[in-house]
TrEMBL record:
<feature type="transmembrane region" description="Helical">
    <location>
        <begin position="12"/>
        <end position="34"/>
    </location>
</feature>
<keyword id="KW-0813">Transport</keyword>
<dbReference type="InterPro" id="IPR050366">
    <property type="entry name" value="BP-dependent_transpt_permease"/>
</dbReference>
<dbReference type="GO" id="GO:0055085">
    <property type="term" value="P:transmembrane transport"/>
</dbReference>
<keyword id="KW-1133">Transmembrane helix</keyword>
<protein>
    <submittedName>
        <fullName>ABC-type dipeptide/oligopeptide/nickel transport system permease subunit</fullName>
    </submittedName>
</protein>
<keyword id="KW-0812">Transmembrane</keyword>
<dbReference type="Pfam" id="PF00528">
    <property type="entry name" value="BPD_transp_1"/>
</dbReference>
<dbReference type="GO" id="GO:0005886">
    <property type="term" value="C:plasma membrane"/>
</dbReference>
<feature type="transmembrane region" description="Helical">
    <location>
        <begin position="194"/>
        <end position="220"/>
    </location>
</feature>
<dbReference type="InterPro" id="IPR000515">
    <property type="entry name" value="MetI-like"/>
</dbReference>
<feature type="domain" description="ABC transmembrane type-1">
    <location>
        <begin position="77"/>
        <end position="262"/>
    </location>
</feature>
<keyword id="KW-0472">Membrane</keyword>
<feature type="transmembrane region" description="Helical">
    <location>
        <begin position="75"/>
        <end position="100"/>
    </location>
</feature>
<keyword id="KW-1003">Cell membrane</keyword>
<feature type="transmembrane region" description="Helical">
    <location>
        <begin position="112"/>
        <end position="133"/>
    </location>
</feature>
<feature type="transmembrane region" description="Helical">
    <location>
        <begin position="240"/>
        <end position="265"/>
    </location>
</feature>
Amino acid sequence: MGADKDAARVSVGLGVGLLLLVVLVALVFVVPWLTPDPDATNYAEKLAAPSLIHPFGTDHAGRDVLARLAAGARISLGAAILVSVVTLLLGLVVGLAATLVGGALETMTFRVVDVALAVPHLVLALAIVGVLGPGLRNLIVAMMVAGWAPFARYARTFARAGLDRPYVLAAQLAGAGRWRVASRHVVPPTVLRLLAVATLGVGEVVLGLSALSFLGLGVAPPVAEWGQMVTESRTYAAQAPWLIVVPGVAVVCTVTCASLLGDALEEHLDARSRG
């Protein structure tokens, strides 16, 4: 009975996650064709309330908020996916290589990982941006440098679990080489597990990028980015609350989508391993 409830919960979560994913994809690829130039100003219509012409209203410069939301989605989601892919690959290579080689290399590598994990990644990213200077490229680099260590730790955990499986031990006892066994029976499930973790982490990366952009460390105006949109709208929050609500809801939807899809993928992998 409990298993059925869990399966139903995951199925509902997967459906909601896919629906949110469709909305986000439409926001990136469809909405820009239906909305005006996100940087086009019209001071005669500044701070206009949501209407049929401007579904999410306009900002302090008369720019269409929906158009800027779509433009910001391309930057926020694109940067988050790039950061997630690079940190996943870095963590996978470092974690797997150190674990499979073992010995002093593994010990030294994971001492470095422990040090990196001891500092909250947003604090570390903030320090790196402070050294490199503000800007989207530097912000992405900072998030990559700050975000690879958890993936290395996860890769080590998953790889060790794979190496301890009975059929892997049996293959090694039968004379199969460690690297050959690892390439067939350890690396593929480790990669799949890390993909689930990375999917869960995309929302966190979006949140981190938006938070640092909110502090003025990301893109510079008038470029649209969700965190930057919130920063620009603080002065007008009482007069035009939609300016904060719209990008805020976009961030929440992205985090929810990533969490639900990652949870569903993780549950599917758990069911496969149990089966």
